[in-house]
């Protein structure tokens, strides 16, 4: 059988790895250095991302007035407001049936004061004491507004 040990350098002889303790000492130090450098790099990258303002959006909310109506012809003023409570002009307000019925869908656009006026005729079903109309908002084009959360509903109560 061929024995390669005379042809190998001393560091590669069989059994040389079993007695070499340098790799065991050097490995943890290298891991600690890599971990520290990685954490520092990650913190720098996160601070750069959090400083970008283009990712911010403002949630729109609808404030109906009145928020409680009776069945039949009604006029509802809906104010579109941003997260700070300031009125938003140019938003499209949509009122549709929830648990109360309404004929079709009513839409209007908010004016400079953030208010849209809608005419609706809600109806309740037989033996139904109350129901709701759903309100959704379409933000003005070219703005950073969104409407992801559920808005205040209009409560319809029987006379």
Which features would summarize this protein structure in a list?
21% helix, 159 residues, Immunoglobulin-like, 3-stranded antiparallel β-sheet, 2 helices
Short note summarizing the structure:
Helices cover 21% and strands 30% of the residues. It has 159 residues and is an alpha+beta fold. It folds into 2 domains: 5-50; 58-157, Immunoglobulin-like (Sandwich).
Describe it for me?
With 159 residues, the protein is an alpha+beta fold. It has 2 domains: 5-50; 58-157, Sandwich (Immunoglobulin-like), CATH 2.60.40. It is 21% helix and 30% strand. The chain has helices at residues 16-19, 22-50, and strands at residues 58-59, 61-65, 68-69, 74-81, 92-97, 106-109, 115-120, 130-138, 145-146, 154-157. The relative contact order is 0.18. The chain crosses the membrane at residues 31-55. It comes from Halobacterium litoreum. Keywords: Membrane, Transmembrane, Transmembrane helix.
* Number of separate helices: 2
Biggest sheet, open or closed, and with what strands and sense?
A: 5 strands, mixed
CATH homologous superfamily identity of the largest domain: Immunoglobulins
Low-confidence stretches: none
The total number of structural domains is 2
CATH topology of the largest domain: Immunoglobulin-like
Q: What is the architecture of the largest domain at the second tier of CATH?
A: Sandwich
Beta-strand content: 25-35%
Average pLDDT across residues? Answer: 82
Note the overall shape: elongated
Question: Measured on Cα atoms, how large is the radius of gyration?
Answer: 34 Å
Any idea of the CATH class of the largest domain? Answer: Mainly Beta
Number of strands: 10
Strand order of the largest sheet: 3-10-8-5-6
- Briefly note the structural class of the backbone: alpha+beta
Distance N to C terminus: 105 Å
Transmembrane segments: 31-55
Pfam families: DUF7382
Keywords: Membrane, Transmembrane, Transmembrane helix
Organism: Halobacterium litoreum
């Amino acid at each position: 059988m061929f024995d390669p040990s005379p042809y190998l350098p001393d560091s590669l002889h069989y059994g040389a790895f079993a007695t070499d303790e340098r790799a065991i000492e050097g490995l943890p130090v290298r891991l600690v250095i890599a971990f520290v450098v990685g954490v520092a790099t990650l913190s720098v990258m996160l601070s750069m991302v959090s400083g970008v303002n283009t990712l911010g959006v403002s949630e729109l909310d609808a404030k109906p007035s009145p928020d409680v109506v009776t069945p039949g012809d009604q006029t509802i003023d809906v104010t579109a407001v941003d997260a700070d409570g300031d009125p938003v002009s140019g938003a499209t307000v949509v009122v549709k049936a929830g648990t109360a019925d309404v004929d079709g869908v009513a839409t209007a656009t908010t004016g400079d004061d953030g208010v849209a006026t809608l005419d609706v005729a809600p109806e309740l079903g037989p033996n139904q004491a109350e129901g709701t109309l759903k309100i959704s908002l379409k933000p003005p084009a070219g703005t950073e507004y969104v409407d992801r959360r559920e808005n205040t509903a209009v409560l319809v109560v029987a006379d």
